[in-house]
Amino acid sequence: MIVVEQVTRHYDREPVLHAVELRLAAAGLTAIIGPNGAGKSTLLSLIAGLDQPDGGQIFLDGRPLAAYTRRELATSLTMLRQRQAFNARLRVRELVLFGRYPHHQGRPGAADYAKLDEVMTYMHVTEVADRFFDQLSGGQQQRVLIAMALAQDTPYLLLDEPLNNLDIPNAVAMMKLLRRFVEDLGKRIVIVIHDVNFASCYSDEVIALKDGRVAFQGNPADLMVPKMLESIYGMPMPVQVIDDKPVSFYYLS
Ligand SMILES: Nc1ncnc2c1ncn2[C@@H]1O[C@H](COP(=O)(O)OP(=O)(O)OP(=O)(O)O)[C@@H](O)[C@H]1O
Ligand SMILES: [Mg+2]
């Protein structure tokens, strides 16, 4: 369970999160949507313990994040950042194995290599396992970074725009894989995503951030209403129901 209690974050003197309150149950897939600059990445980094709030507190399974050791946090929670910079010239296999570090502490064993193979297969990066990361295409790099996050194999998974650079089949496969993780393994996944249709079709719950505040938290069906979407994005967002699923044809508006 993730509890965000009155969390505020300022950069310089500019507030980017205003007393945010959230409760996320122990399992399930939550999508965070909202305009550029709304505070999505800031919120995710705070939940991951990569940044500290200026006010309020965050609890993971009833304990304040600040009470976790680095290793406890690294075996509880993984975060895929929106932007990742590596200076080192690493091969894909080395990089993904690095995701296992909290488990093997520098001495990988059979279980670590088995997990490595499993996640590289999931993310379709086995063919590029021996290539250098900086020689891959944007989408291949993104899939390697997701594989690295999955290799960490934590109950909580925070993914900031994991669909960036993915082609349509890979994006759909990614969302289906996340659903499997939730349903078969009971994982708690929070994903930042821009496409409201992906968010609504695959998630159990959606949170919309706008100007550093929670503008919506609830069922995808309650989000996918033209008035609600327009209030979040400030543009017309027509919705049609196809096979009982509401879909927004925003690109035709
Ligand atoms: N390190 C920083 N220093 C100063 N301002 C920052 C910093 N990081 C983010 N901001 C500002 O905080 C606000 C929220 O940024 P954040 O990255 O959380 O937005 P976001 O919702 O993830 O947007 P996007 O959809 O573009 O990724 C923005 O106005 C941004 O310019
Ligand atoms: Mg962001």
Short description:
The protein is an alpha/beta fold and 253 residues long. 36% of the residues lie in helices and 27% in strands. It contains ten helices and twelve strands.
Principal-axes shape call: globular
Bound ions, cofactors and other small molecules, one mention each = adenosine-5'-triphosphate, magnesium ion
The CATH architecture would be 3-Layer(aba) Sandwich
Report how far the terminal alpha carbons are from each other: 38 Å
Q: Helix proportion of residues, in percent?
A: 25-40%
CATH topology (level 3) name: Rossmann fold
- State the assembly state of the protein chains: single chain
| Sheet of most strands | 6 strands, mixed
Number of strands: 12
Give the count of structural domains.
1
The CATH superfamily appears as P-loop containing nucleotide triphosphate hydrolases
- Series of secondary-structure elements, N-terminal to C-terminal: EEEHEEHEHHHHEHEHEEHHEE
Structure description:
This protein is of the alpha/beta class and 253 residues long. The protein has one domain: P-loop containing nucleotide triphosphate hydrolases (Rossmann fold), CATH 3.40.50.300. Helix content is 36%, strand content 27%. A hairpin with a 2-residue loop joins β1 (2-11) and β2. α3 (92-98) packs parallel to α6 (138-151). The longest helix has 18 residues, at 168-185. Adenosine-5'-triphosphate binds next to α1.
